[in-house]
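Hi team,

Below is the intake form for ACOT9 thioesterase from Fregata magnificens. Please confirm the fields before the structure is written into the shared record.

FORM ID: S-0412
PROTEIN: ACOT9 thioesterase
ORGANISM: Fregata magnificens
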Amino acid sequence: SAYRLCTMRGLPSVLARTLASGTSGSPVLPDMSEVRSRLRDIVGASTNWRDHVQAMQERKALHTLLAKRQEDLSPRRMKDSYLEVILPLGSQPEIREKYLNVHNSVRFGRILEDLDSLGVLICYTHTKEEMQPRSPLSIVTALVDKINLCKKIIYPDCDIKFTGNVSWVGRTSMEVKMHMLQLHDGDYCPVLDATFVMVARDPENKRPAFVNPLVPETPEEEEIFKQGELNKLKRIDFSTASLLKMAPTAEERNIVHDIFLNTLDTRQEGEGTVSFRSRKLPPNSVWMEDAKLKGLQICHPQERNIFNRIFGGFLMRKAFELGWATACSYGGSRPFIVSVDDIMFQRPVEVGSLLLLSGQVCYTEKNYIQVRVHSEVYDADTREHQTTNIFHFTFMSENEVPRVVPKTYGESMLYLDGKRHFAAVMKEI
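The structure came back. Fields below:
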């Protein structure tokens, strides 16, 4: 099973301890509500939707605080951005309800929201200038590189601890590694590792802005920084080889051709009259077109982030829940999330948008279900649809699931893309 081992890949335990030692003086760890209020203070966000235009106007004045070059910003260490945050599900039962699902475990969609908020705060901690009470930077999530889980169930009545720090820095982007642990028998045990990429923009969120460079201090940190560089190159390679840009490999073409031959209907009249159009579903299979679910969300002001756009964590939660429902209805039993992979935030979602979500099972293997959720906004004035995100989720079902079968060339490309994502996840695990 995919859950058998969980190494704290991103941040070896020695480093985690070293970084933590900087914060061990504070006996009480901040919780998630404190994370969100700190973010509002750093940005000077409005707490009232009526005042949001005024708050954004005030941010414009912060332009003068932006660095003209990265070299003008003081270098930072990994421990400078290290944060530990508690989610007191065990010690404060009153917050439990918000995190609870019907199976009496923790809603993973809520965890995605928390990781997103924490990732942004870690980046603000990395870029904080002592003399500036407000940050001129707008830091937003560009990409969820990966989230790998090593526990099937997150318990609703045990405290959770998040830790994280900036692990790599480009000129205007930062990679953040985060870990989630849960308290069992007096010890915090690993639950998941997450890698996010955040980008810094100017106060109005229009142009890229420079961020403080990161200086690794130990061989261990050098290794982590190097891994961040490799992750960036891997993403470029993956995107270059995208099936939207390049034809499938020879091996992939054979897979598609085999599926096509397996679905040809040979029960035609007479010999040699098999039609290319006549198709039949092989046993224990489901056509891809019958393995999808759709959802619609109206984006209310309540779901806005500190920049008055729709909060990325909310989008992730909604996409995850639709992905989970897609896997659940497909497999006919409760699915468990194994990995979240390669979520690209292509454009911001404005308050008031109609958000259309489409969940599609695009690849299956044994009891694994690979689900792709496509999210787009619909503008009622222009009647245009624009893609905002593509989400990739790997679920594990309790039982073996039917094989999903593409019928058209477009579906075959989705199938191959799902197969690639699944293979990348399995390699990690």
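SUMMARY LINE: The first strand starts at residue 83 and ends at 87.

Thanks, M.
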